Amino acid sequence: MQVPFEKEAMTEESTVKSGSSLQALEPIDPYMETKVLRKCDLHVLPILSILFMAAFLDRINIGNARIQGLEADLDMHGHQYNIALQVFFVPYILFEVPSNILIRKLAPSTWLCGIMLGCGEP
């Protein structure tokens, strides 16, 4: 059974070209569609939630580092901490949207490998 991805392809009179002949698509059972989506959600959402939390914690670590004595350890005075934050966050914000656009065009595995090679791996 082939699963259509467009709303208009879900009707019984819809057809799809398969090789040299036209083949009618079967309608999607709403109950089964709900079941499959729920199963995907239960498997994917917990992992994505953990990744989102880890990314959020990673972004706020610089604030925690300041509380723990970052400025004293690096001998920062005045506005040097704020300048360091700008140097970090401005490129992060500017490159986040183009990165998300490119990850849609490339395979995520290719994009992540490219970032690792381009930015340097420890």
Write the layout of secondary structure elements.
Blueprint: E1 15-18, E2 21-24, H1 30-67, H2 70-73, H3 80-105, H4 108-119
Antiparallel strand pairs: 1-2
Which short descriptors sum up this protein?
mainly alpha, two-stranded antiparallel ribbon, 66% helix, elongated
Molecular structure report:
The radius of gyration is 24 Å and the shape is elongated. It is mainly alpha-helical and 122 residues long. It has a two-stranded antiparallel sheet. 66% of the residues lie in helices and 7% in strands. It has 4 helices and 2 strands. The chain has helices at residues 30-67, 70-73, 80-105, 108-119, and strands at 15-18, 21-24. Residues 8-13 have low confidence and may be disordered.
**Ends distance:** 47 Å
Order of SSEs, N→C?
EEHHHH
How much of the residues is beta strand, in percent? 5-15%
Overall average residue pLDDT: 79
